[in-house]
C-alpha cells in the first residue's frame, strides 16, 4: 500500500485455507510476513484488499469500502466482544546484538483460531445438509 502516509509498507502473504462463509463470503486463514514495520501495517493491508482481519473494528469499514469498490459483497458490522482481533504473531526472529546469533522466538497458535475455523466448517456443513433437504 502506497500513498497512505510518508513511508512505503510491504507485506507478503500466503493463503493457508479458505472456507465459504455465509456472512463474510469466505473466511481465510493466512500467513502474513511484514517486510517493513509500520503501525497497523498488516491490518491496513488486509483491509485494503477488501479482506479485513476478523474482529478489526478499527479498519473494518476500510475493508468494506475496498470490497464495494471491487464489486464484492459487503460485510456485516464487526461484533465487539466476540474474541477480539484475530491476529497473532507465532514467530519472530532477530540477531542478538551482543552474540550476533540469530534468535528465533515461537508461540503456539491461540485456540480461538481453531474454534473460529471449526465453527465456520460446521456452519458450511449444516448449510449443505439444509440445502439438500430442501431440494
Could you characterize the architecture of this molecule?
This protein is α+β, with helices and mostly antiparallel strands and 135 residues long. It contains 3 helices and 4 strands; from the N terminus they run ββααββα. A hairpin with a 3-residue loop joins β1 and β2. The longest helix is centred in the last third of the chain and has 24 residues. The radius of gyration is 18 Å and the shape is globular. The model has no long low-confidence stretch (mean pLDDT 90).
**Structure annotation, total helices:** 3
Number of strands: 4
Structural class: alpha+beta
Mean pLDDT: 90
- What is the terminal-to-terminal distance? 45 Å
Q: Secondary-structure element order, as H and E?
A: EEHHEEH
**Level of helix content?**
25-40%
Q: Give the low-confidence spans.
A: none
